[in-house]
C-alpha cells in the first residue's frame, strides 16, 4: 500500500469510528405532537426558533424571537410568545394515521423532517432555522405532481391579524412597552397556484392549490437593540424583516439548506461521544418509548444523545450577536410564561452556560457575556439605589435583557456572572479579550464586594445580610455568598497577574480574599450552609448553594481540600438524589467533582425519568419530557444544559490547574470514547478512548501553548520530548511542555 492510500485508509477508519459512534442523534416519533411542552420538537438559530408539531392534515409551528420582551430597565416584564404558522392541508377530514408516519429531529444536521404516505402519495416536510440566512425555512414536497393544496395562516398571539401581499403574509404589532414586532412569511410554489383569501377573524390567508413543492421562508424581528445607549431600540422590525427576506428569497432551497448545515456542523461536529452501544432493537424504537424502557434497558446511546441534545439546544438558542438563552432557551408559547421566561440569576442562567466552553461551543457563550456587558450601566444605577455609596453593581433574582429586575436581591449574582467572564478566558487564553472585555468587569464587581463586605473586629470579612437560595434566614456570612466572592476574587487576582496590571489593587483584593470567612464543617460532618451550625440533615431543598465551591467553583476539590470535599459529600448525601430537573443536573456535576462516577450515573438515571404531563412540581417531579426537554417541571432548559455539562465533567476536568482524565467514569460507561472536549488552557482533547474503565488512547492538542499538566489513573507513554512524570496519590501526573499547535499522543 502506498503511503497516501494508507493515509486515506486510516482516515477512513477514523471517520467510520466517529460516524459509528455518533449514530444516536435522531430524536423521532411515530405520531404527531399533541402537547407543546412535552411532545413538540424545537428548532432555532439563536434568535428565532419554533416548536414543530408535525401534524398530518394541520401543521402547526409555534415560533419565537428571543428579543420580544415586555418590561424595561426597571420592570422585569416577561418574555412573550410571537405567533403561530399553520398549514391546513386539504382532506382535513381524513384522520387516518398513515402507517409509515415519522417525525424526526436530526441533531447532526439541525433539520426536522416529517414523512408519511397517504393515498399512495409520499409526503416529505423539512424544517430548519438558519443562522447565516436568519430565516426559518419550511419545505413541502410529495412524490406526485400537484399533490400539495392547503391554506397558510400566520397568527399573532395578540389580537393583530395578518395581511397578504402577493406571496407574502405579514402581521405586526406593538407591546405595552412600545416594542414593535413583525413576522412575514413568503410562500414560493413549484407548480400550482397561490391566491389570497380573507377570514373575518383571522385576516388574510394564502391558499395553495395543487403545487408540486412549496417553500416557505419565515422571518420575524423586533426593534430591540442590545444597547442602553440606544434605549434598547434599533431599526424597525419591518426594515429588518425586509432585508432578511430580500437576501434569503434569492437563494434556492438547497443553497439555504447547505449553508445552514455547514454553519451548524462547524459547531456541533466538534464533539463526538460514545458511551457504549445500545441494542439494535432499542435503537429502532421511537425516542419516547426508549425513555419508557430506559429504567429496565441498557441504553447508553440515549444518555449520549441527551448530552448532544444540550449542545444542539445551545447552538439553537445562543448565537453570537444575540441574547442569551433564557429559562426556556428561546421556545415559549405563552405571554405569561413560568417565572416570566426570564434570566434567573441564582443558578439558572449560569447553568445554561456550563456546557459552552467544555463542550467546544465557546462562541455560544458570547451572548451571555455580551448581555452582562450590556446591563452594566443600568445595574450600577439600580444597585446604587439599594446599596448607596458602593462602586460596581449586582443583581436581583429575576431579570430581563434590559437589566430590569424583580424579586429579592441576589447580592452574589454579579460575582457568579463574573465566573463565566473569567472562564471564557480560562478556556480560550484570549489575552485581548481578558484585557479589554473581561478585566474591567471582573474589577468593578470586585469593587462592589470591596465596598459591600463587612469587616468584623477580628478582621474576618462577611457578606452582610445574604440569603442561601431559596431558604433559611437572611443573615451575615452565608456560605453561598462567601464562596462566590472567593471565586470572584480568585479570578480577579489571576487576571491582574496575567495582565501584569493594577498591582496595588490586586494586593488589596488578595488581602480581602485571605480574610473571607472560610467554609466550616458542622456537627454532623456536613459543609455548613450558614455560619451557625444549624443545617438540618433532613433538608432536601433543591438548591445546594453552599456547595458552590465544589462546583462550579474551584475552592473545594478532592485533591487540594480533601476534608472540605468530604464534608461536601456528607451534605450532598443528605440533600438526596431526587429533585427538580436542574437540581439533579447540578448534582451530577457535584458527584463528578467528588470523583464518584457511579453516584453521578445514578443521577443520570434519575434525570432520565419520563415526565408526561405539563404541570408544575417543585418536589420530586423532575426529569425529561418525550421531546427530551428538561422538566423542572414545568419545562426549564437549564437542566438540559446542566446535564450536558455534567457528562463532560465526568469525563474530563481542569478546574484545579491540571487536566484530569476520566475523573468520574461510572461502571456503566466502562468502554467508550470522546473527541473534541476542551480543557482550561485551550487544550483540545482530540481523542480519548477507554476500555474496561482504563484509558487506552489519548491525543491532546495545545491551541495556545504553555504547560500542560495531566493527571491520569494509568501510566502513559509518550514520544513527546521532555515529558516529566511524577506519581502522586496513586495517580501518574505528567507535565508536558506544549507549543502552539503541539499534539501529544499517548500510548498506554
Ligand atoms: C429558582 C428555583 C426554582 C426555579 C426558578 C426559575 O428560583 O428555585 O426552582 O427554577 O428559579
Overall structural class, as computed from helix and strand content, comes to alpha+beta
As a percent range, the share of strand residues is 25-35%
CA radius of gyration is 26 Å
- Ligand catalogue: alpha-L-fucopyranose
Q: Are there runs of 5+ residues with pLDDT below 50, and where? A: 1-22
Average predicted confidence as pLDDT:
95
How much helix, percentage-wise, in residues?
Answer: 25-40%
**Strand order, sheet with most strands:** 1-6-7-8-9-16-13-12-11
Number of beta-strand segments: 37
What count of helical segments does DSSP give? 17
Shape: globular
N→C terminal distance = 27 Å
Topology:
Elements: H1 3-21, E1 26-29, E2 41-44, E3 48-52, E4 58-65, E5 83-89, E6 102-106, E7 111-118, E8 121-129, E9 136-142, E10 148-156, E11 163-165, E12 168-174, E13 180-190, E14 193-199, E15 203-211, E16 213-222, H2 237-248, H3 253-268, E17 272-274, H4 280-283, H5 287-293, H6 300-317, E18 343-344, H7 348-352, H8 366-374, H9 376-386, E19 395-399, E20 405-410, H10 413-428, H11 431-452, E21 454-455, E22 461-462, E23 466-467, E24 474-475, H12 479-499, H13 503-515, H14 562-575, H15 581-593, H16 597-607, E25 623-624, E26 630-631, H17 638-651, E27 652-653, E28 659-661, E29 672-675, E30 677-679, E31 683-691, E32 694-702, E33 706-712, E34 717-718, E35 724-728, E36 731-738, E37 743-747
Parallel strand pairs: 28-33
Antiparallel strand pairs: 1-6, 2-3, 3-4, 4-5, 5-10, 6-7, 7-8, 8-9, 9-16, 10-15, 11-12, 12-13, 13-16, 14-15, 17-29, 18-19, 19-20, 21-22, 23-24, 25-26, 27-28, 29-31, 30-31, 31-32, 32-37, 33-36, 34-37, 35-36
Helix pairs in contact: 6-17, 10-11, 10-12, 11-12, 12-13, 15-16, 15-17
Amino acid at each position: 500500500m502506498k503511503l497516501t492510500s494508507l493515509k486515506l485508509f486510516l482516515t477512513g477508519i477514523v471517520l467510520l469510528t466517529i460516524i459509528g459512534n455518533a449514530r444516536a442523534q435522531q430524536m423521532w416519533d411515530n405520531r404527531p405532537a399533541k402537547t407543546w411542552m412535552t411532545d413538540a420538537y424545537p428548532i432555532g438559530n439563536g434568535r428565532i426558533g419554533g416548536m414543530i408539531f408535525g401534524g398530518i392534515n394541520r401543521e402547526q409551528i409555534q415560533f419565537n424571537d428571543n428579543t420580544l420582551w415586555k418590561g424595561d430597565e426597571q420592570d422585569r416584564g416577561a418574555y412573550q410568545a410571537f405567533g403561530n404558522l399553520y398549514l391546513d392541508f386539504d382532506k382535513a377530514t381524513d384522520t387516518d394515521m398513515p402507517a409509515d408516519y415519522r417525525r424526526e429531529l436530526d441533531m447532526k444536521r439541525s433539520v426536522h423532517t416529517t414523512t408519511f404516505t397517504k393515498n399512495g402519495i409520499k409526503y416529505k416536510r423539512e424544517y430548519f432555522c438558519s443562522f447565516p440566512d436568519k430565516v426559518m425555512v419550511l419545505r413541502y414536497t410529495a412524490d406526485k405532481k400537484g399533490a400539495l393544496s392547503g391554506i397558510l395562516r400566520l397568527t399573532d398571539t395578540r389580537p393583530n391579524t395578518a395581511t397578504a401581499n402577493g406571496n407574502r403574509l405579514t402581521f405586526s404589532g406593538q407591546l405595552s412597552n412600545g416594542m414593535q414586532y413583525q413576522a412575514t412569511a413568503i410562500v414560493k410554489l413549484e407548480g400550482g397556484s397561490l391566491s389570497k383569501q380573507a377570514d373575518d377573524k383571522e385576516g388574510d390567508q394564502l391558499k395553495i392549490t395543487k403545487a408540486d413543492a412549496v417553500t416557505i421562508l419565515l422571518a420575524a424581528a423586533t426593534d430591540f437593540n442590545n444597547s442602553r445607549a440606544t434605549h434598547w431600540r434599533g431599526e424597525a422590525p419591518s426594515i429588518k424583516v425586509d432585508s432578511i427576506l430580500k437576501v434569503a428569497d434569492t437563494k434556492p432551497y438547497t443553497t439555504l439548506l447547505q449553508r445552514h448545515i455547514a454553519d451548524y456542523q462547524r459547531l456541533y461536529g466538534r464533539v463526538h461521544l460514545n458511551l457504549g452501544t445500545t441494542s439494535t432493537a432499542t435503537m429502532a424504537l421511537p425516542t419516547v418509548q426508549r425513555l419508557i424502557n430506559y429504567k429496565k434497558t441498557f441504553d447508553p446511546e440515549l444518555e449520549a444523545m441527551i448530552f448532544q441534545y444540550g449542545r444542539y439546544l445551545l447552538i439553537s438558542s445562543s448565537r453570537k450577536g444575540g441574547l442569551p438563552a433564557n429559562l426556556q432557551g428561546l421556545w415559549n408559547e405563552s405571554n405569561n410564561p413560568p417565572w416570566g421566561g426570564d434570566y434567573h440569576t441564582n443558578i439558572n442562567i449560569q447553568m445554561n452556560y456550563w456546557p459552552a466552553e467544555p463542550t467546544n461551543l465557546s462562541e455560544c457563550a458570547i451572548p451571555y457575556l455580551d448581555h452582562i456587558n450590556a446591563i452594566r450601566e443600568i445595574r450600577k444605577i439600580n444597585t446604587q439605589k439599594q446599596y448607596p455609596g458602593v462602586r460596581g453593581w449586582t443583581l436581583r433574582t429575576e431579570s430581563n435583557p434590559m437589566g430590569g429586575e424583580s424579586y429579592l436581591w441576589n447580592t452574589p449574582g454579579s460575582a457568579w456572572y463574573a465566573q463565566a467572564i473569567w472562564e471564557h478566558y480560562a478556556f480560550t487564553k484570549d489575552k485581548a479579550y481578558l484585557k479589554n472585555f473581561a478585566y474591567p468587569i471582573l474589577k468593578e464587581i470586585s469593587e462592589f464586594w470591596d465596598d459591600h463586605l463587612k469587616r468584623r473586629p477580628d478582621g474576618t470579612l462577611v457578606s452582610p445580610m445574604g440569603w442561601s437560595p431559596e431558604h433559611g434566614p437572611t443573615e451575615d456570612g452565608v456560605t453561598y455568598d462567601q464562596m462566590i466572592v472567593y471565586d470572584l476574587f480568585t479570578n480577579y487576582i489571576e487576571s491582574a497577574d496575567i495582565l501584569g496590571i493594577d498591582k496595588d489593587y490586586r494586593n488589596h483584593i488578595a488581602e480581602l480574599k485571605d480574610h473571607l470567612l472560610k467554609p466550616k464543617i458542622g456537627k454532623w460532618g456536613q459543609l455548613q450552609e450558614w455560619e451557625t451550625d444549624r443545617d438540618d440533615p433532613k433538608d432536601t431543598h433543591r438548591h445546594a448553594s453552599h456547595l458552590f465551591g465544589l462546583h462550579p467553583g474551584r475552592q473545594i476539590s478532592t485533591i487540594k481540600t480533601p476534608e472540605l470535599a468530604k464534608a461536601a459529600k456528607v451534605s450532598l448525601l443528605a440533600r438526596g438524589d431526587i429533585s427538580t430537573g436542574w437540581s439533579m443536573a447540578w448534582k451530577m456535576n457535584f458527584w463528578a467533582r467528588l470523583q464518584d462516577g457511579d453516584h453521578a450515573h445514578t443521577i443520570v438515571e434519575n434525570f432520565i425519568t419520563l415526565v408526561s404531563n405539563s404541570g408544575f412540581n417543585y418536589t420530586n417531579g423532575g426529569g425529561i419530557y418525550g421531546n427530551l426537554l428538561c422538566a423542572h417541571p414545568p419545562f426549564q432548559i437549564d437542566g438540559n444544559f446542566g446535564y450536558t455539562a455534567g457528562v463532560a465533567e465526568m469525563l474530563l476536568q481542569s478546574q484545579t490547574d491540571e487536566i484530569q482524565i476520566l475523573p468520574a467514569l461510572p461502571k456503566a460507561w466502562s468502554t467508550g470514547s470522546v473527541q473534541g472536549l476542551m480543557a482550561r488552557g485551550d487544550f483540545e482533547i482530540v481523542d480519548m478512548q477507554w476500555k474496561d474503565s482504563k484509558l487506552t488512547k489519548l491525543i491532546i492538542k495545545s491551541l495556545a501553548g504553555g504547560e500542560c499538566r495531566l493527571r491520569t489513573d494509568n501510566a502513559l507513554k509518550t514520544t513527546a520530548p521532555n515529558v516529566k512524570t511524577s506519581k502522586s496519590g496513586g495517580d501518574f501526573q505528567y507535565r508536558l511542555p506544549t507549543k502552539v499547535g503541539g499534539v501529544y499522543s499517548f500510548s498506554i
